[in-house]
Amino acid sequence: MLTSRIVAGIIPAQVLQYTQDYTAQHLLTDSRKMLHPASSVFFAIKGAFHNGHTYVPVLYAKGVRQFILEDVLYIPEVKSVADLNILFPEANFWQVESSLRALQQLAAYHRSRFSLPVFAITGSNGKTIVKEWLAQLLSPDELVCKSPRSYNSQIGVPLSVWQLNEHHTLGIFEAGISKPAEMEYLRPIIKPTYGIFTNIGSAHNQGFASRQQKIAEKLKLFTEVELLFYCQDHTSIHEAVQAQGLPAFTWSRSQPANLQIISCRVAGGQANITFRFAGEEQGLLLPYADEASIENMMHCLAVLLWRGLPIDEIQHRLNKLLPVAMRLEMKEAINNCYLIDDTYNNDLAGLGIALDLLLHQPRQGKKTLILSDVLQSGLSDEILYRQVADVVKSKKIDRLIGIGATISRHQDKFEQESQFYTDTDEFLNDFKPDNFRNETILVKGARIFQFEQIVAVFQRKVHGTVLEVNLDALVHNLNYYRAKLQPATKIMVMVKAFAYGSGSYEIANILQFHRVDYLAVAYTDEGVHLRENGISLPIMVMNPSPDSFAKIQQYHLEPEIYSLEILQACLAATQNKSQPLNIHIKLDTGMHRLGFTPEDLATVAQILKAAPQLRVVSTFSHLAGADEALHNSFSQEQVKQFREMAAQLEAGLGYPVLKHILNSAGIVRFPEHQLNMVRLGIGLYGVEATGQEQEGLRTVGTLKTTVSQVKEVPAGETVGYSRRGVAATPKKIATIAIGYADGYDRRFGNGVGQVWVNGQLAPIIGNICMDMCMVDVTGLSVHVGDAVEIFGEHRNITQLAQTIGTIPYELLTNVSARVKRIFFAA
Ligand SMILES: *Cc1c(COP(=O)(O)O)cnc(C)c1O
Predict the structure, then answer these.
(1) What are the residue boundaries of the Alanine racemase C-terminal domain, all occurrences included (predicted)?
(2) Ligand 1 centre from 679 Cα, in Å?
C-alpha cells in the first residue's frame, strides 16, 4: 500500500518510471471521463472555467490514486499537508509548476520512445478531414495511429500521442493553436517527420496580432520536418516557408510546382483533373467536387505521389474515399427511443468518446450499444476485445448488440445482456421494432459495416421540417461569455421556453455537463420536466403559480418570490416542512414586470426572518434596456438601485445572498456589474443582443425544410390562398414543407421572406399556408427533396426578424413542437 506523498518538480523520466511501476496507463484530464481508476493518472489542470483540483476527492473516492497537481492546498478541505494522510491515505501526489506542461512533457517522452514516421497537420481548415482521408488512403500499407476526431489542442495532442504503441507504423496527428507560443509546446509532443499545412483563413483571429504572425506561429510545428506539403497558391504561406528555407513539396493550381494541376473539370459531383508530376502529365477522377474537398484531396494526393504509389492504385483508393462525418448526431427514433448516430469510424479511442456521450445522457431507460468490429487497433483480437468489454462495462451499457465476425467470436467477454450477428444484413433481417423501447441507443460502426442502414430503420418518418441544433456551437457560445467573467462569478443559464426553442433537457444536459451553476425556467412544469429527465443542477422557477409549491418542493426546484402574495403562498405551503426551501427574491428596479419595490423590502425581510424554512439563496433584478446603448444611463441607474435594495435586504435577513442583474446583453455591456452571478439567455443560442460582438458567437439553430414539389406556372396564373401570388411572367414554383403552424410567420409571405436553397436566395410567393408555402425559384436549379434553409447558418436570424418588425427571440421560440429537433456536434 502506498502512503500519501508529495513529489515535487517531476521530470518525465521519473513519471514514466512510475507509470511503468504502477501500470498507470491512462492519462486523465477530465474527471467525467474516468474509466480505469486503478490505472489512471489524473492531471489537475487549472483552466479558464474549471479547476481540476476540485475533483481530486471525488476521483479518490472512485479509486484513482495517482495525481499530478500544482498545489495540494488547492484540493478542497486540505488545509495543510498533514491532512493528506488522513483524507487520501493511499494517494500519490506529484506537485508540479504546471500540470498541463507535465502532461505535455510526459507525452513528449512517450513519443521519443518510437522512431516511426509521423505526419503533423495544421492550418485553418480541413485538418481533421485531411487527417482522416490520409489515414484511409494509407491504411492498406500502414497501421496508422491518429488523433481521435479533432483532438488538436494543448490537451488533445498529448492524449492523442499517448495512444502510440509498438505496433503502429505511422502516426498522423493534427495540431491547432489559438494564440502565440502554443505550437512550441506541441512540436516536441508530435515530433513530426513530415508536415502538411492545409491553408490559412483570412478571418482576423483574436489571439494573433496579424495573419503573418498566425502563419509564423503555425510554422513552428514544422521547424524540423524532412518535408512540408502545402499549396503554394496560398502566397503568404509560400513566402513564409521560403523565407525559412524549409524543405517543401508544393502543389498549385496555376504555377509550376512539384504537383501542378493543369485542368480541373467538375461534373456530376466529381472533379476530373489532369496534372503534371515528375515531368509527366497524368489524369485522375476525384470523388468530390466542392472546392474544400478538392483542396483536402490534393494535399493527400501530393503525399501519395511523393510516396511513389502507381497512378492506378491511387485511383483505386480514391474511389473508395469516404466522406468524413464531422458530426455526431442525436436523433429521435421509433418507440420513444433516442439514437446517437456515430457511423463515423470505429477505433478504440473513438469508442470511448462516443460511449462517454451515451453515459452522459440523463434520460431514464436502457442504454444500448450497437457495435461493429473494431478496426485498426494494432492490438491482438484477444487483448482488443478484452479492452472493448472493459470499456463497455465501465460505461454502464445495459445491452450490447455486436455485429461482425470478430466481435461475435469474442462474445464470451461481454457480461451484459447481448446479441451477436455476423453482419449488418443478418441484424436487419432479424430487426423487430418492439424490441426497442424508451432506450438511448448508440450506433457505432466502422464504415464498411454500413450502419447507416441501421440508423434508417430506427428513424421515425419525420415531417420534412427540422431544427438542427449544433451543441458544439452552443458550448462555444457558453465559453465565449464565460471568458468575460471574473473567476468567482457564477453563471445561471436561462432555459425557459424550451431553451429558447432549441430543445429542453438536451440543452440542460449539455449545460450540466459543462458545469454551469444554475438553470432557470419560467414555469414549474418546465422544471419538473428537466428533473424527470435527470437534470440535477439547481433550477430557479421564475413564475411559480401559488398552487405549484408542492411540486416545487417535491422536485427540489427553487421559486422566484416576487410579490407579497406569492411569498404568503410559499409560506403556507412550507409551514410544517423540516426541509428548508431555497428561494430567490426578485426586485423591481425599473422593468416594472415582476418584483418587490423599495417600499416592500422591510416587510419582506421581516417575514423571512421569522420563516427559517425559507432560505434566500439570491436576490436579483432585470435590466429593461441592456441591449441598446441609448438606455445606458437608465441601466446604470437600475444597477445602482439594485445594489442599494439588495444591501437593505441582506441587512434585514442577517446573512449574505448572491446578487445578480446582468442578462446576455448586460454581460457584454456592463462587465463591471457582474456581482456574484450573471444570467445568460439569448447569447447562448447564438444571438449577441447588443450587436457589437456577433462575430464572437456561432450559429446554434438552423431551421430547415425540404422541397415537396416543383412546377411551372404560366404567365397570368396566381399562387396560393386569396390569389395573392401573381405570376406576371412564367414562373418556376417550389412548394416547401413549412407553414405558420410550424412557426414560419405569415408576415414572411408575399416576397417579404427569402429562403436559402442550393446556395441561392428565393422569395416566398403568395400567402404562407398552415403547413406549406410556395417559393419563386424561377431560373434556379431546384428539385424535389432539396433542402431549404429558413434561418441559420446562411440566413441570419436577427436580420430576418427585422424584416417583419420583430426580434430573434420570437422567431426562435415560435418554432413549434411538431418540428423535430436534431442535435449534433460539429
Ligand atoms: C429571459 C431572462 C434573462 C435572459 O435574457 P437574455 O436577453 O436572453 O439574455 C435574464 N433574466 C431574466 C429575469 C429573464 O427573464
Answers:
(1) 700-824
(2) 6
Higher pLDDT, 494 or 823: 494
Let me know if residue 107 belongs to a domain.
Answer: no
Answer yes or no: is 621 within a domain: yes
CATH number at residue 212: 3.40.1190.10
pLDDT for 745 = 97
Instruction: Judge whether residue 3 has pLDDT over 50.
Output: no
Place 6 in a pLDDT band, splitting at 50, 70 and 90. low
Say yes or no to pLDDT of 680 above 50: yes
Q: What are phi and psi of 302, to 5 degrees?
A: -55, -45
Report yes or no: 788 and 705 within 8 Å, Cβ to Cβ: yes
Same domain, 242 and 302: yes
Percent of the chain at pLDDT > 90 equals 66
| CA-closest residue to ligand 1 atom 12 | 622
Q: pLDDT tens digit string along 390-417?
A: 989 988 899 999 999 999 999 999 999 9
Phi and psi, residue 556, nearest 5°: 50, 45
* DSSP state string for 416-485: SEEEEESSHHHHHHH--GGG--S-EEEEE--GGG-THHHHHHHSPPPPS-EEEEEHHHHHHHHHHHHTTS
Shared domain check, 716 and 571? no
pLDDT tens sequence across 641-655 = 999 999 999 999 999
Co-location of 303 and 251 in the same domain: yes
Same domain (yes/no): 265, 380: no
Q: Is the CB of 663 under 6 A from ligand 1?
A: yes
- The residues, any chain, with a CB within 8 Å of residue 114's CB and separated by 6 or more, are 164, 166, 168, 171
- 680/746 same-domain check: no
Q: Is residue 211 part of a domain?
A: yes
* Residue 321, pLDDT score: 82
Q: Is 34 annotated as a binding residue?
A: no
User: How confident is the model over 67-78, as pLDDT tens digits?
Assistant: 999 999 999 989
- Mean pLDDT lowest for which of 90-99, 115-124, 219-228, 419-428? 90-99
Domain of residue 475, residue span: 468-696
The finding on whether 147 has its CB within 6 A of some atom of ligand 1 is: no
Spatial distance between the Cα atoms of 259 and 249, rounded to a whole number of angstroms: 8
- SS3 state at 349: helix
Whether the pLDDT of residue 16 is over 70: the answer is no
Query: Please, are residues 600 and 585 in contact by the beta-carbon 8 Å criterion?
Result: no
Query: b/e for 564-586, b at 16 or more Cβ within 10 A?
Result: eebbebbbebbeeeeeebbbbbb
> Which pLDDT band holds residue 2 (cuts at 50, 70, 90)?
very low
The domain tally of the chain equals 5
Residue 49 sits in a domain whose CATH number is 3.40.1390
Last residue of a domain, one of 319, 337, 367: 319
Length of the chain as a residue count: 826
Is 723 assigned a ligand-binding role in the annotation?
Answer: no
Whether 619 and 685 map to the same domain: the answer is: yes
Residue nearest to atom 6 of ligand 1 (CA): 681
What is the C-alpha to C-alpha distance for residues 417 and 439, in angstroms, rounded to an integer? 14
Question: Which of 663, 680, 690, 807 gets mutated to test ligand 1 (max ligand atoms within 8 A of its CB)?
Answer: 663
Whether 242 and 152 map to the same domain: the answer is: yes
Q: Is residue 220 part of a domain?
A: yes
